[in-house]
Design a protein that fits this description.
The protein has ten helices and 20 strands. With about 425 residues, it is of the alpha+beta class. The protein has one domain. It has a nine-stranded mixed β-sheet, sandwiched between helices. About 25% of the residues lie in helices and about 25% in strands. Bound molecules: ligand 0WD and calcium ion (CA). Calcium ion binds near residues 269, 286 and 288. It is an enzyme of class 3 (hydrolase). Keywords: Hydrolase, Magnesium, Metal-binding, Nuclease, Nucleotide-binding, Nucleus, RNA-binding.
Length: about 425
Amino acid sequence: MDQHRPHNPNSSYRRHRSEDKRERGDGWRNPNENKHLKPNHHQHQSGATPEQKPLSCPSLSTRRELYERDFPLYKQPVEVGCFSLDAERRFFNDSRQMRYFVEPDRNPNFDLRDGYKGRYVKRDDSVREKLDHILRWIVANRSKLDSSATTASSRALDVDFVTWRGHLTKLLTTPYETREGWLLAVTRFSGTLYISEVETEAAQRERDNRTERHEEMMYWGYKFEQYTCADNPDSLPDPSGVVNTNEAFCTVVQTRLADHRLLFSGEVDCRDKDPDAPAPPACYVELKTSAEICTPKQRSNLHRFKLLKWWAQSFLPGVPRVVAGFRDHEGVVVSMETFHISKISHLIKNEYNCWKPTVCMNFCSDFMSFVKHMATEDNPSVVYLFSWEPRRDVTFSIHRDSQYSFLPHWYVKEMTSGGDSHHQS
Ligand code: 0WD
Ligand code: CA
C-alpha cells in the first residue's frame, strides 16, 4: 500500500531539524521559550477547572498549515492478536465474533428499519469501559509483547502508546474538525503512555438528548452489518436474527508513527471469506452506511467530510477497503460502493481546499511528541488531561488520584509483579 511509505531518509522531517526541534513540531508553543520546559511548574490540583490553569501552560496548535510537510513514517500495521466481546459484553481472547463479508447486489433494497422494534439489543453506552478490554488482552498476551531486547528485570511493554483506534481517529481528524472537541486522559506507567478518552460535557449532553429519529438511525449501521455479514465463511447472512451491539470483534495491531511505537485495538466489522485472502488486517472490510447521493454537491460533501473519517479510521489499522451502503430517507439501502483506502487520496485531489492525509498524520505524530514531553511522571494514578476545543490549541492539566484515573488496580498489579505469575480469575 503506497500510503504506508517506507522510511525515506530524505523526507524525514526530524532529520533536518536542530536538536531542540527534533522532538517537536512547528505547532508547539512554549511560552517560556528561552527556558527549559518545566511541565511540573504548570501542575495544579485535581479538580481545578481549565480557567485556573496558568497562562504559561505549553500548548499545541492544530492549524493545518503547520502540518503540511512530508508524509511521516507509518509502518505497515501488524496484527498481533485479537479479541471478542460476546452478547453480554464478556471478553474472550479469541476470534469467536469474527464475521464474513457477503457481497450484496449493487441495488440491494435492504430495509434498515426492520427489527428496530423487537429484534434489537442495544449496548448500555453509559458504561465507561475505558481501556479495560485492551488491558485484559495485554495481560493475557504478555509473552507476545515483552521486549526481547530488554533484560528479565525490565517489565516494560515494548511500546510507547496504548490506546483505542477510535481515539487515534479523533487525533488524525482534529486539524479539520470544526464542531466537536475532545478530552484525552494520559497516564505514564512503566514507560508506556496510555491514552483513554473522557466524554466531554457537550458529548454527554448530546447522548442524553438524542431524538428518537437519531436513535433509530444509529441502529441502521448495525442492521446493515447484519445484511452483509455471515457467521461462517460458507453461510449466508441472517437478517431475521437479533441485532445485539454488545457483540464485537477487535483486532490488536502494532505499528510505528515517526518515532512513536503504537499498540492499539479497533473493532473490525468483517473479513473477506475467501480462505486465500491476504492475512489480517489486509483481509478486513469496514462497513458504512450513508445518505444516498443525488447531486454533485452531495458527492463533494462525502469526499470533503465523510471520507476524511472513513480514511482515518481504516488507514490506521491497515484495513484496505470500506464498503458503503447508500440509503434513502426511509432507511432503504438503494446502492453500494466500495472505497479503496489507498485510492481515497486521489479521489479528494479534485476537491477545493480539501483535507490532506499528511496533515492528519503529522498532527498526530506531533501530538504524541507533545504528550511524551509533558506527561513525564511515571505513576499509574496520575492523569495528564489533554483537552481541545475547535479553533483553540491543545492544552493540558494534571490530576492525581482523581476521577480521571483509569488504569485498574488489577492491571497495575499484574504489570508490576511481572508476566510469570498466572492468576486465576
Ligand atoms: O468508552 C469509550 N469512550 C469508547 C469505547 C470510545 C470508542 C470505542 N470504545 C470501545 C468499545 O469497547 C468498542 O467495542 O472501543 C470499541 C471500538 O473501538 P474503536 O474501533 O477504537 O472505535 P471506533 O473506530 O470509533 O468505532 C468502530 C466501531 C463503530 O463502527 P462505525 O462504522 O460506526 O465507525 O465500533 C463501534 C461502532 O460500530 N463503536 C462502539 N462500540 C462500543 N462502544 C463505540 C463505543 N463507544 N464507538 C464506536
Ligand atoms: Ca462500521
